[in-house]
Amino acid sequence: MKLTIVEYPDKRLRLKSKAVVSFDKKLHDLLDSMYPIMIDTNGIGLAAIQVAHPIRALILNIPDEEGEQSDENLLEIINPVITDKAGETVYQEGCLSVPKFYEDIKRFDTLSLNYQDREGNTKSLEADGLLSIAIQHEIDHLEGILFIDKLSYSRRKKFEKEYKRMLKERKES
Ligand code: QAP
Ligand code: CO
């Protein structure tokens, strides 16, 4: 399946993604196609809506201590529900749909999650650190929320200005 990343300000990023009900070949093809595009673009997380499929599916691949991404650490999360969350943490986030822009964002420090795997099996997981942050970032995508929505008014203004400039320069070259 040929996929391309949907970039801000594309309005599709504002769609509320729908629950996955069929854990079929179509879903597996989509997940299989999402992985290489995430790795090729240096991503650690990607929601299906970012490749124009508004369904509640996301993938994550958090680098290990050496900063290496390995296939074994691929997590496929379908229909996630956060069941518990605690604490506070700040991390400089980015997003494949908002290229070249990074800002400090406040999130919960730890969380508990229920979800389904690609076969529809129910799973749960406890997350902290970068995994916890990444899950919260990707679940926001399922609701049409971007990390830039969490910026203060003045930071958001600054972002819009810089981003518009970047898009203009990109168009000109
Ligand atoms: C979400 O983000 C995330 O601007 C995943 O030029 C962010 O993979 C989870 C990326 C922060 C946890 C912490 C962004 C690649 C990748 C860019 C990403 C870029 C190239 C973002
Ligand atoms: Co994102």
What does this 3D model show about the protein?
The protein has 173 residues and is α+β, with helices and mostly antiparallel strands. The protein has one domain: Peptide Deformylase (Alpha-Beta Complex). The protein contains 3 helices and 7 strands. A 5-stranded antiparallel beta sheet has the order 1-2-3-6-7. Strands 4-5 form a two-stranded antiparallel ribbon. It is globular and about 45 Å long. The mean pLDDT is 98. The site of 2-phenylethyl (2E)-3-(3,4-dihydroxyphenyl)prop-2-enoate has 17 residues, from strand 4 and helix 2. 2-phenylethyl (2E)-3-(3,4-dihydroxyphenyl)prop-2-enoate binds next to strand 4 and helix 2.
Short description:
The protein is of the alpha+beta class and 173 residues long. It contains 3 helices and 7 strands. The longest helix has 20 residues.
Overall geometry? globular
Tell me the major beta sheet: 5 strands, antiparallel
Bound molecules: 2-phenylethyl (2E)-3-(3,4-dihydroxyphenyl)prop-2-enoate, cobalt (II) ion
**Ends apart, CA distance between termini:** 29 Å
CATH topology group: Peptide Deformylase
Overall CATH architecture: Alpha-Beta Complex
* Name given to the CATH homologous superfamily: Peptide deformylase
Spatial strand sequence of the major β-sheet: 1-2-3-6-7
Strand content: 25-35%
* Integer tally of domains: 1
Number of strands: 7
What is the CATH level 1 assignment?
Alpha Beta
Kindly state the mean pLDDT as a whole number? 98
Order of helices and strands: HEEEEEEEHH
Helical content band:
25-40%
Low-confidence segments, ≥5 residues, pLDDT <50? none
